[in-house]
Amino acid sequence: MKTYVITGGTDGIGGAVARTYLDRGQEVVVVGRDAETGEAWLETARRHDAASRAHFLRADLSLLSENGALLDTLRSSFAKIDGLVLCARHFRTTREVTAEGFENTFAHFYLSRFALSHGLTGLLDSADAPVIVNVAGPGGAGKIHWDDLQLAREYDGHTALTQGGRLNDLLGVAYADRRPGTRVRYVLFHPGTVSTGFSGEYTPDTLARIADIRRTAQPVEEAVLPIIRMLDNPPDTVLSAFVRDTPLLPQGPGFSVEQARRLHLHTEGVLAGHATVMEGS
User: Fold this and answer.
1) Across all residues in the chain, what is the average pLDDT?
2) Bridge partner residues of 189 (DSSP)
């Protein structure tokens, strides 16, 4: 039996991945912040006689302390992880700082994925064909504000999200750079426009635009198919990137090894003092 860990796995793309592998008889761990939706996921598993293979771990991934607790639980509960799927994302129109002092999107969309990618490598290494799928939109044109990564001076929700996509590209590059001989395959994935819940806090104008997008966006059941194929048959190279089924060469300015190393060093500094989330980095 294989084990899959999915953040943002109670609905949307993550939820579709979770249901697919539960239906196939695999063990599935869903991570989310809402206990009610987590219980709904477990109830669905019970109705399908899959309760013993379905797990829900509540965590606010914008908090390093809760990422650390999540890592501790996974390390103590499982001997291996075959697939880690990073789907959790939340849009914020206005800037919010977490109780730990980090800008929320930076913490939730980047720091958490850094912590889970590196922190679960030991469990991934124990699997036969381990793979990480980071659903973050590779190849985006967002600017990295190196002198103000947490956008303290001029915050915009779209800017925060597009920069987060760029940071995740560099996360994948640094992961491969630091582990050239690893068996773990790191996949950066862009699903295209999908009719999901669009988790976030939006202005009325933005909500109206989202409603228009949903009318023509691809259904979740279609968007998830490339992810399933990558989990079932991981790519040959340590790092790869895709826009749906189309490969995207992870090279050029957006995938600079020098910038990836710079970001990794910066992140180590940001996370100094958080021993659990630094383990494996």
Assistant:
1) 90
2) 135, 242
Nearest to 4 by CA among 97, 104, 129, 101: 129
Paired strand residues for 226:
none
Write the pLDDT tens digit of every residue in 112-165.
999 999 999 999 999 999 999 999 989 988 899 999 999 999 999 999 999 999
Compute the distance between CA of residue 32 and CA of residue 55 in angstroms, rounded to an integer.
11
pTM of the model: 0.92
For 254, other C-beta atoms within 10 Å of its C-beta total 20
Nearest one of 137, 143, 132, 226 to 185, comparing CA atoms: 132
Dihedral-angle region of residue 101 (phi above 0 means left; psi in -120 to 50 means alpha; beta otherwise): left
- Do 103 and 270 meet the contact criterion of CB atoms below 8 Å apart? no
Question: Dihedral of CA 236/115/91/42: which sign?
Answer: positive
Give the type of residue at 263.
L
Show the tokens assigned to 7.
């953040």
Residue 180 sits at the vertex; the CA angle it makes with 129 and 239, to the nearest 5 degrees, is 60
Q: Where are the alpha helices (DSSP H) in 56-156?
A: 64-77, 104-105, 112-119, 121-125
